[in-house]
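Q: Joint fold for the lines below.
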Amino acid sequence: MRFLPHTDADRSAMLDTIGVSDMRELFADIPAGFHHEPGSLDLPDALSEAAIVRKFTQASDKNRHAGNSSCFLGGGTYHHFIPAVVDYVISRGEFLTAYTPYQPEIAQGTLQTLFEFQTMIARLLGMDVSNASMYDAATSVAEAALMARRVKRRDRVVIAGSVNPRYRAVTHNYLSHLGGETIVVDNSGFSTDVEKVCANIDEATACVIVQYPDFYGSVYDLTEIRSRCDETGALMIVAFSDATAFALIKPPGEYGADIVVGSGQALGIPMGFGGPHLGLFTCTQKLLRQMPGRVCGMTTDANGKRGFVLTLSTREQHIRREKATSNICSNQGLMCTAAATYMTLMGDAGLKTVAENSAAALQMLVSNLPVDVKAADGVHYNETVLSFKDQAHRDTLLAKAGKEAIFAGIPLENLNSAAEPRHLLIATTEMTEAEDVSRYLKLLEAAQ
Amino acid sequence: MTASNYSGVAGLMHEEPLLFEHAHEKATSISLPGVTTPLSDELAAFSRTKKANIPGLSEPEAVRHFVRLSQWNHSIETGFYPLGSCTMKYNPRANEQVVRLPGLAHVHPDQPVESVQGLLALLFELQNWLGEITGLPYVTLQPAAGAQGEWTGLMMIRAALESRGESHRNKVLVPDSAHGTNPASAALCGMQTVELKSLANGRVDLEELKANLDENVAALMLTNPNTTGMFESDIAEICELVHQAGGFVYGDGANLNALVGIAKPGDMGIDCLHINVHKTFSTPHGGGGPGGGPVVVNESLAPFLPTPRIVKNKDAYRIIHSDESSIGPVLGSIGQVGVLLRAAAYIAAFGKDHLHKIAEDAVLNANYILARLKGAYHVPFEGICKHECLLTDEIQNRHGIKTLDIAKQLIDLGFHPMTVYFPLVVHGAMLIEPTESESRETIDAFCDAMLEIAKACEEGDTEALHAAPVRSIRSRLDETAAARTPVLVWKED
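A: Joint structure:
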């Protein structure tokens, strides 16, 4: 077997050293009735490397993908450009095959990269500090709610209905056995009802969770929500789906958010059918000791040289056990490395171009829609809802799009079962060329 | 002691500034596609007012920066990495190749299900394999990591108890040798943890277990083999006792590498188990993640599996987004798909012919290390171990040397240290897990290094041990200062 270095001679010499006569003796502590004969499991025969590559290539070939289609899908996952260097860096064995940096003297590569990642993420979101990542946006939102409950010692959570339904469902699950109350505030159409959100925040509220731009892509002013939080002492948590937005629009930190959480997938990570993605978690300096997850900090070594370590570990499960701030152990370390590399290549200017082109493609599409297809009202970044006359109208479009290798949008009811089945959630990025927009518009004309 | 060189690595000494220290104002070097028409005034009204100040480096500068940083890491590809309970095995390169195929990497989670049948087939097949390997046939691939798998499993157990009208059961029994995630996951489910004291031989004390089994018990969380490296031979009786008391047995699958292809947790009475695919099934650890924590269960918990879920109808795969008894989603997607695909490729490479050899060689290597080091190091629990062996610093303590010093000296000798100070049930723990990937030559070199350290202690030649590491890019770092005044982001003055 190609991954096992021992020869039979090695094995028998090692068994001699141990003082047992055969391999099965090493398993004598497992009651005999539980032993399975080698080779008796109901699994396929071993495949050669060539056969594995063939099997996966055939599977890949059966799928349509963003490389051979025009992609107008969003809803939390976006097809942005990924420079080749990003994949090269995360393919380096030294990053790829290292563990959590528990021995900092021989993990400075991972640690310095995490410190750079934390710095860039905090700056992009306009926040004081960042941790070294959570699993994904949905679990980041849930952990933010848990953190707010700890900080405020209050157990009422207000969440806008315009937060991605998946983030809401996971958050609901995380809170489900911990007592307290979770209030979901209805939208007004396809946008956040700021007035109604504010009206639901009271003195018993630990936090309010809003998404910005919201699930429907709407960009709106968070000032009133901040004021209402100040009046009641609730924490303001802002979630987001596409981190590139904040190279262009005012980041949540500029509105005075206490905790900002969301997805870093847009920063150099492939869509990958949903994972592995990157959960981002940032907060104000004041709250950092209640943050969940790994955190990297700067320090010095015994010779006075600058170095980096995982720090504030007394918050964590391996020290605090049931009293930890979270049960999280692993993070998305390699995805942090990807995002750090991506941001380093882009810089402010590159990120801004990504954001501008993403928004421009949507504006080009929306401003040329046929009369019987309506885009959601309000200001949008790179995502919106298209509404059709009826389901038949929309499904005609989807059928035509399928034949033309266009992913034309996500039927809204797939994500939010309460939605009427005549809407599509659509998104654009810098990968959307003018030609893609024209093809989409032609399809819309043809679907009437 | 002499600065012997066992591994051919003597520390790569170069300095690399923070990228913020590299940065200087420059034109963006990246070329980007897309639509470049001017934006609306309405959107422009929301423009950010302060620059983010993210420095852009040119491509050659960025590559050199990160390649240099990479060289400051120990990794499996550069050396032995015997972290106990972490299963740092070799990560096959072919697996990296196949997950980058465009039809697997650049697919959107919400594209039409008909357009992604090839990928769903691979995931569905993986579910079946995990069910077969563990003897627990109902599978969710969704949990993002082991800790999330634990929480998912406990949520399902809660749901099952509620469906029986036994929602008062909220006590989770956890042996004192358990991973810290176990009690933390129980707390996140709103459950009370009761710690069980282990026997003097490192195993579960049946009397202590019986004394704590009452009408409020929801579950026992058990790692088997446990974190001292010993198999809980009373496993069948343990499970039976918990079941008789009306509770479930949750298996922490972190140590599945000792059993894979040899014995199935489901046969032993475990009801629910998470699998760390980044351990047993060789998906790369990536400097902390991403991991993957599929959960496998028996029929009693099957109705409560999370959604979304992949099902097969005739020859077509579908995704079920919700059903009544499910606990619902635990992650924003169907799982860490890229990680899961690597695990599938790994299992395919071993197949039914070779899978058991993983556990055999892993257990062989751990026992070989134990045989070579006992005498020189204190072995707290006698007998055959499984895939990892536990030592302590008791003998070296007499010479003023503790586990931390031994660990740091190993760095100078070219090895990553073992897991230190875990499990908590012994003082000065050193938990060594070699995995099946290592050659006898490497393992012998590691044992030689450990014996040299022990000899240096006996001879009172301990100066180097206190100073270590001196050959790494940094010496011991001041963790106290880091925690007292946390500096988590760079600030230009």
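Q: Anything notable?
A: Residues 337-373 of chain B form the longest helix (37 residues). Chain B is about 35% helix and 10% strand.
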